[in-house]
Amino acid sequence: MCGIVGYIGKRPAYPILIKGLHRLEYRGYDSAGVALINDQNELTVLKTKGKVADLERYAESKDTSGTIGIAHTRWATHGEPNDRNAHPHYSQSKNLAIIHNGIIENYAVLKTALQKEGFTFQSDTDTEVLVQLIEYVQQNNHCDLCQAVQLALQEVIGAYAIAVIERGNPDLIIAARKSSPLVVGIGEDEFFLASDATPIVEYTHEVVYLEDEEVAIIERNKPLKIVNFKNVEKPLHIKTLEMSISQLEKGGYPHFMLKEIYEQPRTIIDCIRGRINPEGTDVILSGVLDHQEKFLHANRIIIVACGTSWHAGLIGEHLIEDLCRIPVEVEYASEFRYRHPIVRPDDIVIAISQSGETADTLAAVEIARKAGAFIYGICNVIGSSIPRATDSGSYIHVGPEIGVASTKAFTGQVTVLAMLALTIGKLRGSIEPERYHQLIRQLQLIPQKMKTVLGLSDQLADLSKIFTYAHNFIYLGRGYNYPVALEGALKLKEISYIHAEGYPAAEMKHGPIALIDNEMPVIAIATTDSVYEKTISNIQEIKARHGRVVALVTEGNHDVAAMADHVIEIPQVDECLMPLVVSIPLQMLAYYIAINKNRNVDQPRNLAKSVTVE
Length: 614
Ligand code: G6P
Hints:
Blueprint: E1 3-8, H1 13-24, E2 31-37, E3 43-49, H2 52-59, E4 68-74, E5 89-90, E6 96-104, H3 107-116, H4 126-141, H5 145-153, E7 158-166, E8 169-178, E9 183-186, E10 191-194, E11 206-209, E12 214-219, E13 225-228, E14 233-234, E15 239-240, H6 256-262, H7 264-272, H8 286-289, H9 292-297, E16 300-305, H10 307-324, E17 328-332, H11 333-336, E18 347-353, H12 359-370, E19 374-379, H13 385-389, E20 392-395, H14 408-428, H15 433-454, H16 457-467, E21 472-477, H17 481-496, E22 499-504, E23 521-526, H18 532-543, E24 548-554, E25 566-570, H19 578-596
Parallel strand pairs: 16-17, 16-18, 18-19, 19-20, 21-22, 21-23, 23-24, 24-25
Antiparallel strand pairs: 1-4, 1-10, 2-3, 2-4, 5-6, 6-7, 7-8, 8-12, 9-10, 9-11, 11-15, 12-13, 13-14
Helix pairs in contact: 3-4, 4-5, 7-14, 7-15, 10-14, 10-17, 14-15, 15-19, 16-19, 17-19
């Protein structure tokens, strides 16, 4: 949520900052801005409402020189997205400029106090309050920028990743974080700063992730220094990035989302690589096996997540209850954190998050920790906050996901959950050896089956044309396919802005059936599984009311074709792995409908990829 970039070194900063902002635009795209210090030591802020391309147009005729700068792309929290509220923000004297991700919760109190001291404000943001506070502290204490930031942050309640530069001080960036990620890239005589590693990877693979309440002193021609708010120096933990630049490009696809949909056969191979033994007879998930006692004696598993990751969690509930016979609860992290949940030391809490930074999920992890539970993370972004806050876990290893609507991360999460359930099930003896081996074999076949469904793209593109102008959609599924129906509906609304609801098929008759008429498209997932016959009855209820049914069925099923308006055939897969395959045509359908409507599928309105505010 919001993107931060910074540069100090020997090259012109502006092109690096702009390129970095483009890479981070998936995090927020309401407005963008840059602050630079030129050779005359002047501090210039250029910012505008809109996307990074709008900023580039705006800056064309302006001075963008200088080898130090900070830049921001925003997802509005305080104050509407407009030029005034865009970052960077100047301090009162225009000596300082700041960029900020997160929320300053006590900004109103601070603002009132600063107003009494004669400070005036140009924007509605909490961020401007922070830069004014830093200036106030600096003026009153006659201290340097670093000290002023350290002192000011001690007055602040909230979450932040910030970077500050100062007129007349072209050799220094001060950055700090609390509950919002920040990473410093170390190049040769140059440093890069960003809210995640994507803008850094093309310049250097050496990075340092800041921890909470750490301040980075990033000074030209000096080694990087990290201190805490009391100015105690912290050791530098330099990490090597494994990401490659090609993973951040579209690779010939028109959109990241389409690229990521097509990547899935490969990302599932990457996800299971090294976790199934070469003979294909055993799953070795070290995050579980290293903590066997915890999993052997767990009384309950609680899954916490948001958005698409929550849908993966619902599939995890089925998998774990089926294969491990441990009771599972799946909670929206945002609800869990505020409802005084009962968590016991023999509970295992699984936090699922693509970004590893979602504020609500991170807060839920902290609650679980305080209650003494064992915490397991299932994340994608290596080194992000949630994996660092958990006791153990498994990365999904699907590579950077740039499209705001999650696709390959969802199937990666479900794959890890399947391996997790198999591992725990074997440990606890709750799964028959024959079923265990059969599911491992099936899991290895998933990438091939995904390739087969990707071959349905023409059929789905044609189908999308029929439904582009529908105003509402209903998605139905039962059992393992109920969360897939929820996820299919979410994909459609996220990128096409068509209202869509996912529902357990049998619940239809308790309300939503009132919506059915000959204009209502119903996507019914009716693959051959233990609830197939029941789902068929539900389809008949819809047809009896003239609903328009698109049915997803198992290859070779001709019965449903007789009653549905359109049929999409999916290869046969064991029911508990079916979500991995059946979710792909739903991703593609949403994609094509959104394209027909000329939507920005990679950056849909009002959304952000990584939600680091609650
Ligand atoms: C945002 C994204 C969703 C994502 C959700 C949870 O809303 O737009 O695609 O599912 O956050 O994110 P996480 O990174 O925790 O999986």
